[in-house]
């Protein structure tokens, strides 16, 4: 089982779906939130809202998400963990293009890192429709 204590800050990042159910908006429809987290600190480096009907981030969103993470840490990690329950092909391609090793792992292995963020997101956004 993976644990934050196994990593140094900025050694590895984690990409995962932050929400359990789509975030509903009145104006623009439903979205999933893809978050990027530092594995050691569990700090959320950035996020992208993806239409709930889409199966993946766009190439532009993938570049933007990695660039946002890089702006926080002023460098890229050696490894990017992506949960196997999310296709993340665009993010995988962009990470590999930038020299980041990508490892696919089960969501269960990522829970020690992401569970608190998911619970907080659910408490904050719940199931209410946003403006």
Name of the CATH class? Alpha Beta
Helix-and-strand structural type: alpha/beta
Order of helices and strands: EEEEHEHEH
Assess the beta-strand content as a share of residues.
25-35%
Number of helices: 3
Helix fraction, binned, reads 25-40%
* CATH fold-level name: Nucleotidyltransferase, domain 5
**How would you characterize the largest beta sheet?**
6 strands, mixed
> How many domains in all?
1
Shape: globular
Query: Can you tell me the CATH architecture?
Result: 2-Layer Sandwich
Low-confidence stretches: none
Number of strands: 6
Supply the CATH superfamily name: Ribonuclease H-like superfamily/Ribonuclease H
Q: What is the average per-residue confidence, as pLDDT, rounded to a whole number?
A: 91
Distance between the ends? 39 Å
Q: Using only CA atoms, what is the Rg? A: 14 Å
Compile the SSE list and pairings.
Blueprint: E1 12-17, E2 23-25, E3 29-38, E4 44-51, H1 59-73, E5 79-83, H2 89-97, E6 101-105, H3 107-125
Parallel strand pairs: 1-5, 5-6
Antiparallel strand pairs: 1-3, 2-3, 3-4
Helix pairs in contact: 1-2
Descriptive account of the structure:
The protein is built from 3 helices and 6 strands; from the N terminus they run ββββαβαβα. It has 131 residues and is an alpha/beta fold. The protein has a single domain, classed as Nucleotidyltransferase, domain 5. A hairpin with a 5-residue loop joins β3 and β4 (44-51). Strands 1, 2, 3, 4, 5 and 6 form a 6-stranded mixed sheet that branches. It is globular, with a radius of gyration of 14 Å. 33% of the residues lie in helices and 28% in strands. The protein has helices spanning 59-73, 89-97, 107-125, and strands spanning 12-17, 23-25, 29-38, 44-51, 79-83, 101-105.
């Amino acid at each position: 089982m993976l644990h934050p204590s196994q990593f140094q800050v900025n050694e590895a990042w984690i990409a995962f779906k932050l929400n359990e159910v789509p975030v509903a908006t009145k104006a623009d429809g439903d979205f999933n939130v893809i978050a990027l987290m530092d594995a050691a600190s569990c700090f959320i480096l950035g996020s992208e809202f993806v239409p709930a009907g889409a199966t993946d981030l766009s190439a532009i969103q993938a570049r933007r998400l990695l660039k946002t993470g890089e702006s926080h840490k002023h460098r890229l990690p050696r490894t990017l963990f992506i949960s196997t329950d999310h296709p993340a092909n665009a993010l995988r391609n962009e990470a590999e293009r930038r020299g980041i090793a990508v490892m696919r792992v089960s969501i269960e292995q990522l829970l020690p890192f992401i569970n608190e963020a998911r619970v907080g997101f659910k408490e904050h956004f719940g199931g209410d429709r946003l403006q």
